[in-house]
Amino acid sequence: MRTTNRVMSGWQLFCFSVLSVPLAMVSFAIVSFAPTFYAIDMGVGLAVVGAVFMFGRLFDVFTDPLIGALSDRTFGARGPRVPWMLFSFPGVLLFAWLLLSPPDGVGPVYLFCVISGYLLFVTAFDVPYSSIGLEISPNVHERSVLAGTKAVFQILGALAASLAPVIIGAQMGLSLRTLALAFLITMPVAMAFFLIWAPRQQSREARTRLSLSTAWRNCLQERAFRRLMIAFFAVQAANAMTVGLLVLFVSHVLNAPAVVGQMFLLLLVGTAVFVPLWIWLSSMIGKRRTWTVAITICAGVLSGCYMVGAGDILLMQLICIGLGACMTCDAVMPTSMLADIVARDEADSGHPRAASYLALKNAASKMAFVAPMGIAFPILGLAGFDKSGVNGPETFGILLFFFAGLPAVLRLAVAGYLWRRAGDVTVTTTPA
How many domains are there within the chain? Predict the structure, then answer.
């Protein structure tokens, strides 16, 4: 592995990572607020919204690997992959606004078109951008610093999104419109910082040019990558169900819709505060064991949701902090383990495949998003879930099962899988 001197100043580190703030802000709003907003506030319906988001994500799953493979072979005057970012930038702005600030009376056709457009353009922008972060420095430690800084900026963006309902109030439509406006202002500024002051990446052609299918096949033939993706997909599905249903759980089980934003804020605070703990623990017991510990603890936290009743604000606050603390490990450890796999593979093969690996990982994450949209929402709709709050014990039981019960079971299964498959999901690298 290359261990040359570090090449990025603190200012350059900032200028590269700041793009993560507006991207994370919109992504958090779409995952956490938009489904419930369209289903209930806009009157589209839970089952219809679930189906639209599911098909939009499935479409995105196919475009991610394609854009990743094409990005691996794209070179421009400003460096590899940047042409993709410049091409997709206007589309990201347009469809983010249309999705978060819809006109009155829109239906499922509008929702399907704008969610598909946004996911396509943001994939074409974010896959190349994130891949540059894996390759921009030849120094192994500096790559870790860059990844950590980018994660912090992502948390800041998600925190900004979660604060909107708290500051503005419980009116979700106004909150989403405010976030859309903030995105239109901050995204061009962050892009300018990136283009002007972020360090240029050196062009690096592969020793030989592979077909797209061969590039994907080579990634998937890496056993450690396959095993890691199985565990990552299951945990992401569990997280998607919990986060995607948090609005409904707080509004109808806790019976406190006014504190929805507060609960998201506490979840993100837990995410930010516990990052150093997981990094320290991984240096003591290893990445796989650290992730297994976090997965198991989160299953215990989720079981506490069965004790939540109307008005149990303090208990729900503690649960949200605990969920955030564990979910940050779900992001950091798999990414770090994937970086080990990518570094070893590129050193052995001589092919720049970072974007292909990253895109396949993103595809797994987006497939996991189907869990709440394609399963939980339609089943709740068929069970007669009433947005007015007049629901029987059976309906609340279904909501609780998808919010906490099934995610806890998935997490425990993954913990056992990681324990048994230690050698398959761990890659040993030589320290810098």
Answer: 1
Does a structural domain hold residue 225? yes
- Residue 301 inside a domain? The answer is yes
Residue 264 in domain:
yes
Show the tokens assigned to 361.
Answer: 């990982």
Classify residue 106 as left (phi > 0), alpha (psi -120 to 50) or beta: beta
Q: Which domain CATH number covers 359?
A: 1.20.1250.20
- Give the chain's radius of gyration (CA, Å): 21
Of 240, 206, 220, residue with least CA distance to 135: 206
Q: Does 5 fall in a domain?
A: no
User: Structural domain of residue 398, as residue ranges?
Assistant: 16-198+214-425
Sign of CA dihedral 89, 93, 96, 98: negative
Structural tokens at position 200 = 């240029």
Query: Mind listing the pLDDT tens digit for each residue in 361-416?
Result: 877 777 776 666 677 777 887 777 766 656 677 788 888 898 999 999 999 999 99
- What pTM value is reported for the model? 0.73
